[in-house]
Design brief:
With about 120 residues, the protein is α+β, with helices and mostly antiparallel strands. It is about 55% helix and about 15% strand.
């Protein structure tokens, strides 16, 4: 039996409401953040002193991987992603975000196990 246009319209509205709820909850982002967090925890097996930027919920999505050489195994963050995160989540201008990254993140004294920062060739 076919549905009337009214019934179809009601179904569409319900679907749109469900989509709004899903977007609000953002399970994909939450799942991605959980995967990144779990991955970082596993990496700490190689270097328990590895520094992780705080707040993790802001900085973890900016992790690109790890960098390794003799006597070094640390997290690698993407500079551009940090700048974009600071602009979007903290309302900074590009200049403010770049300055914050330079002085408050990269310039912070975190010891030998400090993360490294990827500056991609564009």
């Amino acid at each position: 039996m076919s549905k009337s246009l009214t019934e179809l319209g009601r179904g569409l509205v319900d679907d749109q409401e469900d989509i709004k709820k899903i977007k609000a909850e953002n399970p994909i982002k939450r799942d991605s953040e959980r995967r990144i967090s779990d991955w970082v925890e596993r990496q700490s097996h190689y270097n328990p002193a590895m520094v992780r930027l705080e707040p993790q919920e802001d900085f973890d999505p900016c992790i690109k991987g790890t960098v390794e050489r003799i006597n070094l195994y640390v997290l690698c963050y993407d500079e551009l992603e940090i700048v974009l995160m600071l602009e979007n989540k903290h309302g900074m201008t590009r200049e403010e975000a770049e300055e914050y990254l330079e002085y408050n993140v990269k310039g912070a004294s975190m010891g030998e196990d400090s993360p490294v920062f990827l500056n991609q060739v564009v």
